[in-house]
Amino acid sequence: MQTGQTGAGTGDLKTLAPAYNTLSSRLSPPDLPRIKKRSNACEACKKRKTKCQGTQPCEKCIQAESQCVFAEELDRRKKLALRQAEQELRTAYELLGQMVVASDNKDSAELDRLSTMIKGGFLRTQGPSSVEQKDLSDVSTSHSTTASSSAASLHDFATLNEDINRDERSRATGYIGRGSEIAWMQKLSEELNKLSFSSESPQPQQETIFEDDMTSLSYHLDHFSFPNLSPGDPQALPTRACSDQLISIYLARVDPSFPLLNRTLFLSQCQHAFTKSEPPRRKWLIILNLIYAIGAKYMQLSEKNWTDAIDDRTFLSRAIALNADSSLLGEHADLQQVQIWVLYSIYLLASAQVNRSWHMAGRAVRCAIALGLNLRGVGLNVDATSRESRTRLWWSLFVLEQLLSVMTGRTSCIEWRSFSIPAPIPFDEAQFHCPQAAEFISDPALRERTFVFTGNTPKFQIDARNQALQAVEPNRSLYFFYLADLAVISHAAVKAVYGLQSFGLPKCASDKITHFQQMLRDWLSSLQPCFQFCDSNGRLKMTTPCPERIALALAFYSSQIILNRPCLTRPDMKEGTRTRYPRSPFADATALICLQSAIDLTAILPDLPNMDWLCEMTPWWAVLHYIMQALIILLLQLAVGPVDVQRGTMTEEGQGSVGTAEEPGVILERAKKCLRWLHAIASRSPSSRRAFISCERLLHRIAAIHGFDLEGIPQTSTLADRTANGGLQHYYAPHGSAQHSESAYSDPLREAQWWGADFTYSEPDVEEQAIRPFSLDPTLLEFLENAME
């Protein structure tokens, strides 16, 4: 058989394989006619079900005197070439991802190895399977690292499975991304439905199947709005005693985590406002009223010295009335306007209005970027104290934006590589004139070399940074430095693991998780003894309670949970069996970190709920989010149960097995503890009430499947009435019902004219049409009357 030609006619032949017999090649005919054939048949031959020659026109069509038409289809050779190109592209993406990780880790040896592979034609000689299998035995041994029904698989992040615009309540909740604990609740609910059907118990009735959407599972209060209270005189001030109390609460409980004000300057301005006849400026009054509102919200939660005369809504209405004087469309933002948006976002966050808070934080980010607050100032005619105030304003906004992005599961509007502003200096304002602080303030280059963040910083520079931090006397600014550093790590980790660009290849995901795990360990090593809360392995080792230490611990374990969450999964069944795939050692170890972080987070809380402790020791505006993160992880583990691990050719019991520190009995007790805390907070927080009801229902469903004992869980009937929806009517102005009628999804093309944004109805459109005056044609009325008769 002829396989090739080396003679003069080579240009007319397409070589399909190398010629192994040169003699036969020389004896082959010099020229062969090139036949233009197709691998598919024409349309007429397909209908006749006859063999088609492939030429155009073909012999059958010539004989039948019919038109010979070939459909545009890829022939087999093109399909094979396309498949090979797709494989090479996937392999290229895999290698590119490994090179990015190696570059971030400053691993020159790994970069050299990958470069050699590429130069040696690796992409053309090996498919993606060989790339993934090389050095992947501990990452992707089975389907279990990517296939899971209980976890928010990284492959479905880029999809939207519900119409957010369908009604007022869904818009109030907004899109909830897969990194949010609310999305984890939905996945858990879906998993429990599957477990109910797959169990050996009788098949449940249809009404026992829960179809929970994000809106029904959200424990936030965005579906409520504040009533339009009359502010009276917007420039009115409370009594001096009330003002001092609310400002003291803000400075003690909120300002350390969000130092967006120049404390010394602000206190002097307050003194001037109450002692001088000159009225304060409008924007300063807005800031003051928002601080009052945040302080009043804290007093409402703590119930210390709380009276009806101190109403956060009153201060909020004054701030809104004062801010309404400026045109949001025409007035350019300044530093005070950025502070206003940040304070308003903090107030909304403390009020469980998370979607609104996210919107306000985004507005503040754009204003800050427009003012260049994200950039390092060089040669500016700005004093050192003011420059540092702007730096802290930016990092306060960054910490807030990162927290809200995690709570909503949405992409942050800040790219952590898009700013050059230095880290906040770890000295309080009162220390700026001390020799140690003055040296760094007067020498920006020295400051930027010394006080660097952990992310993408060489090891030797981190060691020098840690040594410098150990010499700083503990203070609020040092705490904020640690908090901002952790926020940058968490921001980069969430973007790398949950971002749309992270899809596709398990090796890249595992490398990223490992990379950020090391970053978190480096961050732990930088903590001063007074801020340390765990050992070198991240296990909780709490000493004397301290608000700053507890806040850092909660934020750290929250970061660990969300980083390692993708590996806490229930593997799929092997086809045709009732046996599940085992986890890889990497996935099992990572899932254990996630689970252990949830256990350690719950261990921070006292065994008996204590609201005084919670208000004084925790970041009270976010503590419910932290508890819910840990609780959902515990519930996921209870639902998933112990998962076997593949180690070579052997299968072993994995984390969560009986006899380990994470066995089901231990997890169940931790989950009960979280529910008791939610029940206690629910007496003062409507959002905690909603969280308790949802999680208690999920735990009851898990217990029904696995037979757990639920003794010790408070009953829903014992929740305080004042946080129920009926008891909130005096405080909030609720939106319309989340129920939507069938007409909300009717065909808009039936209308004479449609004025919507697209061809779907939303609730306001239906309401507008319902109240719109209209008249009927008299002829139509006469027809209807005759029909009725």
UniProtKB/TrEMBL annotation:
Composition bias type Low complexity, residue spans: 140-151
GO molecular function: DNA binding; DNA-binding transcription factor activity, RNA polymerase II-specific; zinc ion binding
Top-level taxon: Eukaryota
Name of one Pfam family that matches: Zn_clus
Transcription regulation among keywords: yes
UniProt cross-references to Gene3D superfamilies, sorted A to Z: Zn(2)-C6 fungal-type DNA-binding domain
Keywords in alphabetical order: DNA-binding, Metal-binding, Nucleus, Transcription, Transcription regulation
Residue ranges of the region described as Disordered: 124-151
InterPro entries in the cross-refs: Trans_reg_galc, XnlR_reg_dom, Zn2-C6_fun-type_DNA-bd_sf, Zn2Cys6_DnaBD
A single GO BP: DNA-templated transcription
SMART domains per UniProt: Fungal_trans, GAL4
Domain Zn(2)-C6 fungal-type: 41-70
Protein name, per record: Zn(2)-C6 fungal-type domain-containing protein
Species this protein is from: Aspergillus uvarum CBS 121591
